[in-house]
């Protein structure tokens, strides 16, 4: 005779059914499933075992409504000055990867928003007032410094990757872009380059500081070197055409380029190759970021390194402290010149 298969335990649909099965109150079940020590360990383990046996998982949404927490952190990318830039930009993807690792490791989900603000709009206030988020990490300040300051005054769990200005309210983690600009130009000057160009759109605060540092290094050198500025955007559609046009109208005597990002630098290397200009023999190039792709170019890219992984960890740590009610100051990291083949 063939034995009949054992019947599967009946699936439990809610806390009340589990409480009836366990012979305790619904409150006791709720506390036991949450691991509360108010329930003695033997009862807690028995209830948890029954829940597993009957395939019961607490309704996370209902739990979050009771606690007033969503378990979700908003990761916001404001594109006020680079409206055509995409999240697929290698810098964003690198930062997002590290943020996702850090936030999910402490139990949070991410909600990603690419925002194109309009002048005067309360776009950030609407995000933080949505009731969908426990906190916000912003990647970049774009040209939205005033909007971020206004929100930070009333919304503590907000941390931002970017540049710190004296007296600002919002908590920033970022790299000293001014010093980074100095490092890049000092290096080009040390290689004997005297006719320099800067490729980057200075509407964004970080790139503005990179250019300011470059100019400061030039002034302190007393070398008589010059620096021409080309406002290159980071839009994947427009950037190659812009750089191509800049190279075509650029003074042929230019012998060094400081690019405001590795993405701009890598595109410039390729376009110079198409014009039969050698890097670094004809033109030396220094980028900014030290993305993983910087070692994949030919020649490999000399660049100013900002520690994106450490920055993401600090953003997460500061956000967690703010969620716990603590105040946090800004963290500005020192850049590092990484010398490879392009300069």
TrEMBL record:
<dbReference type="InterPro" id="IPR046335">
    <property type="entry name" value="LacI/GalR-like_sensor"/>
</dbReference>
<dbReference type="GO" id="GO:0003700">
    <property type="term" value="F:DNA-binding transcription factor activity"/>
</dbReference>
<keyword id="KW-0238">DNA-binding</keyword>
<dbReference type="InterPro" id="IPR028082">
    <property type="entry name" value="Peripla_BP_I"/>
</dbReference>
<keyword id="KW-0804">Transcription</keyword>
<protein>
    <submittedName>
        <fullName>LacI family DNA-binding transcriptional regulator</fullName>
    </submittedName>
</protein>
<keyword id="KW-0805">Transcription regulation</keyword>
<feature type="domain" description="HTH lacI-type">
    <location>
        <begin position="13"/>
        <end position="67"/>
    </location>
</feature>
<dbReference type="Pfam" id="PF00356">
    <property type="entry name" value="LacI"/>
</dbReference>
<dbReference type="GO" id="GO:0000976">
    <property type="term" value="F:transcription cis-regulatory region binding"/>
</dbReference>
<dbReference type="InterPro" id="IPR000843">
    <property type="entry name" value="HTH_LacI"/>
</dbReference>
<dbReference type="InterPro" id="IPR010982">
    <property type="entry name" value="Lambda_DNA-bd_dom_sf"/>
</dbReference>
<dbReference type="Pfam" id="PF13377">
    <property type="entry name" value="Peripla_BP_3"/>
</dbReference>
């Amino acid at each position: 005779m063939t034995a009949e298969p054992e019947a599967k335990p009946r699936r439990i649909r809610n806390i009340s059914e589990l409480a009836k099965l366990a012979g305790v109150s619904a409150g006791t079940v709720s506390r036991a499933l949450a691991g509360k020590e108010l329930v003695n360990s033997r009862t807690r383990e028995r209830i948890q075992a029954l829940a597993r046996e009957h395939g019961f998982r607490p309704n996370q949404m209902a739990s979050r409504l009771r606690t007033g927490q969503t378990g979700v952190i908003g990761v916001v990318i404001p594109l006020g000055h680079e409206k055509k830039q995409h999240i697929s930009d290698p810098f964003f993807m690198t930062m997002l990867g590290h943020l996702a690792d850090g936030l999910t490791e402490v139990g949070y989900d991410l909600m990603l928003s690419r925002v194109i603000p309009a002048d005067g709009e309360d776009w950030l206030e609407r995000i933080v007032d949505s009731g969908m988020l426990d906190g916000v990490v912003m990647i970049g300040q774009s040209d939205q410094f005033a909007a971020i300051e206004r929100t930070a005054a009333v919304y503590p769990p907000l941390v931002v990757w970017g540049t710190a200005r004296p007296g600002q309210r919002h908590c920033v983690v970022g790299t000293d872009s001014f010093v980074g600009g100095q490092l890049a130009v000092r290096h080009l000057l040390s290689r004997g380059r005297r006719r320099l160009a800067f490729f980057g759109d200075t509407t964004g605060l970080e790139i503005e500081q990179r250019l300011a540092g470059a100019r400061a290094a030039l002034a302190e050198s007393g070398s008589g070197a010059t620096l021409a500025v080309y406002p290159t955007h980071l839009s994947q559609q427009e950037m190659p055409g812009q750089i191509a046009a800049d190279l075509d109208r650029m003074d042929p005597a230019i012998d060094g380029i400081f690019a405001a990002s590795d993405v701009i630098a890598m595109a410039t290397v390729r376009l110079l190759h198409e014009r039969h200009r050698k890097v670094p023999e004809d033109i030396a190039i220094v980028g900014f970021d030290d993305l993983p792709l910087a070692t994949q170019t030919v020649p490999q890219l000399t660049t100013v390194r900002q520690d994106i992984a450490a920055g993401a960890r600090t953003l997460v740590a500061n956000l967690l402290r703010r969620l716990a009610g603590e105040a946090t100051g800004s963290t500005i990291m020192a850049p590092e010149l990484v010398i490879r083949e392009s300069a």
